[in-house]
Amino acid sequence: MCDCHEHKHTQGTRIPVLLRIFVSILLLICAIVFQITGLWDFVMFMAAYLIAGGDILLRAWKNIWRGAVFDENFLMSLATIGAIIIGEYPEAVMVMVLYQIGEYLQHKAVEKSRRSITELMDIRPDYANIEIDGTLEKKSPEEINIDDIIIVSAGEKVPLDGVIVEGEAVFDTSALTGESVPRRLSVGDNAVSGFINTNGVIKIKVTKKFGESTVAKILELVEHAGEKKAKAENFITKFARIYTPVVVVCALILALIPPVFHDGQFGVWFSRALTFLVISCPCALVISVPLGFFAGIGGASRKGILIKGSSYLEALSKPETVVFDKTGTLTKGTFAVTELVPAEHISSDELLITAAKAENYSNHPIALSLKRAYDEHIQQQENTFDDIPIAGLEEEGPSGITDVEEIAGCGVKANVDGETVLVGNDKLMLQFGVRIGKVHDSGTVVYVAKNSEYIGYIVISDEIKDDAVSTIRDLKEMKVKSVMLTGDSVAAAEYPTMMLGLDKYYSQLLPEDKVYRIEKLIEAKKKNRTILFAGDGINDAPVLMRADVGIAMGGLGSDAAIEAADVVIMDDKPSKIVTAINIARKTMRIVKQNIIFAVGIKILFLILGALGLMTMWGAVFADVGVALLAVLNSLRALR
């Protein structure tokens, strides 16, 4: 296998590679121009050869002793030593010089890509400020303990996860989430390591040690992203192991068989065989394919999408179905009033006011959603609803609300301005003999009655995320199916299904039911297609692990998300799933382009070399040129 991607061109050698190339070329020119004596010419040629390619000869020898015979170092050494044997000294030197120049340029290109990705993930904090005896001291984040109070000033990174206990500031979260919009945090909010404080001074009570912090887990994830290799990478590794010995055997056949049965010109065919060896180096494939995946993972991290390995990037590129959890993935997980349906002779505003006042003392999520809607109406109408003056809902409640009784599992009964008000489900209405009509609305239906008379109902639904509609639309355009799994009721599942245009939904599911549904989808999928599951990473860990690719939504600060999923989206936007699929598809296109281009050009040049239509110098240009073009193509995945 070629190990050209592991070369160290500026380290590990006493003389920098560019200086060695310069000296080698200078000696070569002197040997060609001056031609003092045969011996001195030979000495200068050999000096130029060893200065340019001594490290390649040494690596080839070491690899032979380790049992790794057929690599690029071996091919280059064999070809150039053969050239020296037949007296082609300038060719031998220039092969090494051109090879070193090509390797140097490839090395620089690869290093640039790695640097770009490292800069994108440059979230590791250098220090943490802690106050000791009234003075501020800088300590390593590893030295800070849970419950310690750290201070983060403007321009500094948050070094550890914690809760803000003093101060307020605006944070740049782009390094983690890929979002350019800053986030304002104040006392009681969670501050995540890796955020950058853009203004103000805050104090944070540490809740996790550095090794367990978000930033540490992300850095570990990125560091090990290359361990899960894609099929294309494994194919190239196996291909190189088989390909290199085969071309060596072909070169031997080319050097020995044709002159025996053709014209007896061993020198001509031996030279062609050496050219054949130089052309055969599989460096373009071995470098560009892993680099393409590496660049794709880096490009995704730029968008706040962490992919744990190239195998998952490859799987992301060919989804058949994306399965969504409902709460926290497609919806915000917060209830809101979505519809007011008053009875005859009752206004929508009066219906909402009556229900909100009756629910004023309750902390139930439905009650909270009614009160939020009430407050929004106050702001919009400047404290009037259809010219009816109303009072604000304070903690002690507006005047006129008495005899409040919460009836478990049913709703609330209260006296509002001297009138008996019932707010709750159909069971509550039935209990007090209130006649209601049948309702087909999706979501949670809250009925309202006043003095035993039905005055309408209110629909409360989990709010759909802002970009959920565009996410499902984009998936449809990509011909990817969308399915929703939820533990909620049929009515609660119907609303987002209808609003989003989902292909299918399954409701009232227990965790084991969700796993069963995923397994059924996997069994029914087409060959070479994948099933993706997107969930919050906390309650859906079994499903995340069972899907072909588990995507954790809103992974920011969630240990379970980072641990259980194959892909972590560092904010809660479902549209990032579409972004991840697009990045994966672009990366796979680039990888396939590199494979087709490198193999196709290599075969063409091998045929030309075997026919004697390619010189050894041209062979090096071909090998280096193909490798450089493939590397540059791979770097497009960063964008």
Which shape, going by the Cα principal axes? elongated
The main sheet comes to: 7 strands, mixed
Average pLDDT figure: 81
Which segments are poorly predicted (pLDDT under 50) over 5 or more consecutive residues? 1-14, 383-392
Q: What is the overall number of helices?
A: 20
Q: Please give the number of β-strands.
A: 24
Sheet/helix structural class: alpha+beta
Distance between the termini: 30 Å
Helix content: 40-55%
Radius of gyration, CA atoms, in whole angstroms: 35 Å
β-sheet strand percentage: 15-25%
Query: Please, how many domains?
Result: 4
Sequence of strands across the biggest β-sheet? 10-24-23-22-11-20-21
Summarize the topology.
Elements: H1 17-34, H2 38-66, H3 72-85, H4 89-120, E1 128-132, E2 135-139, E3 149-152, E4 162-166, E5 169-172, H5 174-177, E6 183-185, E7 190-191, E8 196-197, E9 202-206, H6 214-223, H7 231-261, H8 266-280, H9 283-302, E10 305-307, H10 310-316, E11 319-325, E12 331-342, H11 348-358, H12 365-381, E13 384-385, E14 388-389, E15 401-407, E16 411-416, E17 419-424, H13 426-431, E18 444-450, E19 453-464, H14 468-477, E20 481-485, H15 490-500, E21 504-506, H16 511-524, E22 530-535, H17 541-546, E23 549-552, H18 559-564, E24 567-569, H19 575-610, H20 616-634
Parallel strand pairs: 11-20, 11-22, 20-21, 22-23, 23-24
Antiparallel strand pairs: 1-2, 1-3, 3-9, 4-7, 4-9, 5-6, 5-8, 10-24, 12-19, 13-14, 15-16, 16-17, 17-18, 18-19
Helix pairs in contact: 1-2, 1-4, 2-3, 2-4, 3-4, 3-8, 4-9, 4-20, 7-8, 7-9, 8-19, 8-20, 9-19, 9-20, 10-19, 11-12, 14-19, 19-20
